[in-house]
UniProtKB/TrEMBL annotation:
The lineage of its organism: Eukaryota, Sar, Stramenopiles, Oomycota, Saprolegniomycetes. Residues 132-218 form the DM2 domain. It comes from Aphanomyces astaci (Crayfish plague agent). This is DM2 domain-containing protein. SUPFAM superfamilies: SWIB/MDM2 domain (SSF47592). Pfam families: SWIB (PF02201). Coiled coil: none annotated. CDD domains: SWIB-MDM2.
Length: 245
């Protein structure tokens, strides 16, 4: 069976809609005892902005949207966490989107909030957590150099793998290099390559997996920081980020 490699394209869109001022509208005078609150004009609502995240599978050969797959954005990400600008939206963080709570498969999600008068820009931090089951890990450089020929073909140092495949690749390396001690098959005698990985000359078999775990890094969230305009401007987007599939 031939493996087809595709790319997940995630795009970000931003738009701002200004407030509509009614003809003859006069700002309300501050009531006694609330002058300080009204004078904080930077926290008065002014217009409305929308930030949208969308995901699309594209064909690596044609660089076009792939219509042959039913998998959508919610299939690849289990959670998104948004942190708004504390100066403008105190006490509103964090905001979470979950693929488990969103119901049907979706191509993305959006958030809409009022703009704040007196601010030209505002910050937004987005964290995207991949939907990975089983969990995937990145390998230390020395471990990757040792066992990459026994992993998925055409893998790169930035790729991630499930623990079962990593363990299998390591044992394939040990068997091919004949590293089990002849007088005690329960002990692995490391060659120069594995000595650089595990920083010792030999190990009992039962200790290998514990040492291997220290060379693996769980895949964390992708964190992206945005500085967005807080006033009417042409819509921003799409800003794409590509994930190899």
């Amino acid at each position: 069976m031939q493996m087809i490699r595709k790319t997940l394209k995630v795009s970000f869109y931003y738009s701002f809609v200004p407030s509509v001022k009614l003809e003859g509208e006069v700002p309300a005078a501050p009531s006694e005892g609330h002058a300080d609150q009204v004078h904080r004009s930077e926290l008065l609502d002014d217009g409305e902005w929308t930030f949208r995240v969308e995901g699309t599978i594209i064909d690596g050969n044609k660089n076009a949207a792939c219509q042959s797959t039913a998998k959508k954005f919610s299939h690849f990400f289990r959670k998104a966490i948004l942190d708004l600008d504390d100066q403008l939206y105190p006490g509103s963080n964090p905001i979470e989107w979950s693929s488990f709570r969103s119901g049907d498969d979706s191509d993305g999600f959006s958030i809409t909030r009022p703009g704040k008068k007196g601010f030209q820009t505002h910050r937004l931090r987005l964290q995207l957590l991949r939907n990975q089951s089983p969990e995937r890990f990145a390998l230390s450089p020395d471990l990757f150099n040792a066992i990459s020929p026994y992993l998925t073909p055409n893998c790169g140092p930035d790729d991630t793998f499930v623990k079962a495949d990593i363990s299998f690749a390591l044992w394939q390396y040990i068997k091919e290099k004949d590293l089990m001690k002849t007088d005690d098959c329960r002990v692995i005698s490391h060659d120069e390559v594995l000595q650089r990985v595990f920083e010792c000359h030999e190990q009992p078999i039962h200790a290998i997996m514990g040492s291997l775990q220290t060379k693996l890094t769980p895949v964390g969230p992708t964190v992206i920081d945005f500085t967005l305009p807080g006033h009417p401007s042409p819509p921003h987007g799409p800003t794409p980020i590509l994930w190899p599939g």
